[in-house]
Amino acid sequence: MLSITQPIPSVTAVTTCNMKKALPVILSVTFGTAVLLFIITFSIGLPIYCRFFYYMQIEPLGIPETTGYEYSQIKFAYDQVLDFLTLPNREFGTGVFKYSQSGMEHFVDCKVLFDLNVTVLIISTVIIATILILQKCKVVTLARPFGLSPAFISAVSIFVIGAILGLVIAIDFDSAFTTFHHLFFPGKDNWTFNPHYDEIILALPQEFFLSCAVLIGASIILISVGIIVYQLVNKKLKNKR
Q1: Which stretch of DSSP H or E encloses residue 19?
Q2: Which of 144, 166, 110, 125 shows the shortest CA–CA distance to 33?
Q3: pLDDT 10s digits, 94-143
Q4: Percentage of the chain with pLDDT > 90?
Q5: From CA 101, how far away is CA 232, in angstroms rounded?
Q6: If DSSP codes are grouped into helix, strand and coil, which group holds residue 237?
Q7: Which of 14, 141, 155, 188 is deepest in the core (most CB within 10 A)?
Q8: What pLDDT does 177 receive?
Q9: What distance lies between CA 38 and its chain's CA centroid?
Q10: How far is residue 51's CA from residue 85's CA, in Å, rounded to a whole number?
Q11: Cα separation of 19 and 8, whole Å?
């Protein structure tokens, strides 16, 4: 009596098959996360690296009158602080403004966050560009849960988060500002500057930080909306074809 036995697939073959099925999902999660992080870090970087955003507020916010210094002196002090925060191997300084050891230590803490932001921005940009190129060359394929692209899902997610945070900030900026510092500088109180010892805080009024928050929020919303609209239009064009 003859018996026909089915070949038993090897462990390697099964693993390879599972990896092929899982790869689009892994790439989609990676791509979606990178898009989300890019939107956040790019938006945060706008008020940091676009220094003219501060320059154009020096006169309207009455900073020369508040500090007693001229526009050029205020601008130089701001540039010196930003050079320390954004460029490597720069000594801390605040121009003509006095500063304390505690105040300087806060800016050292800020530099860690600034460096982290630009590092995440660069890495997320590289990941996005790499996956898009590989997808364009048909080397990889991204999973589309519910028929939606990872970029679309990320844009919707960050839009909702941004809208909620924007509402919270609009309702009570002071509390949001305080919560932010407690969250990112846990256990420290050197961010509460005394203008008698750290005069630079007079050149950085709370109104400036509010405008920074508005710029960041607006950027997050605009980029997210841009991605959402692009994805919807692109999907509609593909359906027509």
Answers
A1: helix 11-49
A2: 125
A3: 999 999 999 999 999 999 999 999 999 999 999 999 999 998 888 878 87
A4: 56
A5: 53
A6: helix
A7: 155
A8: 84
A9: 6
A10: 13
A11: 19
Nearest-angstrom CA–CA distance, 2 and 159: 66
pLDDT by residue (tens digit) across 196-205?
A: 899 999 999 9
Token pair for residue 149? 């692209």
CA distance linking residue 36 with residue 106, whole number of Å: 28
Give me the pLDDT at residue 3, please.
52
Phi first, then psi: what are they for 151, rounded to 5°?
A: -65, -40
Average pLDDT value for residue range 31-60: 96
Local confidence band at 4 (pLDDT 50, 70, 90 cut-offs):
low
Q: Which residues of 216-239 are buried (b: 16+ CB within 10 A; e: fewer)?
A: bbebbbebbeebbeebeeeeeeee
Calculate the dihedral angle through the C-alpha atoms of 172, 176, 177, 182, rounding to the nearest 10 degrees.
150
Residue linked to tokens 């941004």: 162
Q: Return the H-helix or E-strand segment holding 207.
A: helix 206-240
Question: Could you tell me the pTM of the whole model?
Answer: 0.85
Which token pair is 221?
């919303």
